Amino acid sequence: FRHRLLGWLEQGAAIDFASHAFAGNPWLAVLPMLVPSAILQRDEARWVAQTASGVFHLGIDESAAWGLMAFGGGYPLHMMGEWDGALLRVLAAWDEHGGQWVLELGA
Q1: CB 38 within 8 A of CB 78
Q2: Residue by residue, what is the 3-state secondary structure of 65-87?
């Protein structure tokens, strides 16, 4: 990853890098992606992370999304997850004060 997490790049550059990685390895299912300063929003029937440079569609279930929304309170969060080329599966998030949210697996 050239010592950078995807996401610290601008959205377009991160997606371009991911596209090349997926094209170079067809067995690659996901890449780690960091989405800084994103605001969680509901866009019709799906959840999205709105950033200064665009929107990431999220692969997140309703319960987890509402928990993340409650944690963020409408303020920007840094989100870490798995990017499959279309959806970001949010695994963790943190705010500017050090508060943390982690996806509960198997709960």
Answers
A1: yes
A2: HHHHHHHHCCCCEEEEEEECCCC
Which has the closest alpha carbon to 93: 104, 77, 82? Answer: 77
Contacts of 86 (CB under 8 A, 6+ apart): 57
d(CA 31, CA 37): 19
Residues 6 or more apart whose CB falls under 8 angstroms from that of 14 comprise: 6, 7, 33
- pLDDT tens, residue order, the chain (107 aa): 344 555 555 667 777 888 888 899 989 999 988 888 999 999 888 999 998 888 999 999 999 999 999 999 999 999 999 999 899 999 999 999 999 999 988 75
pTM for this one? 0.83
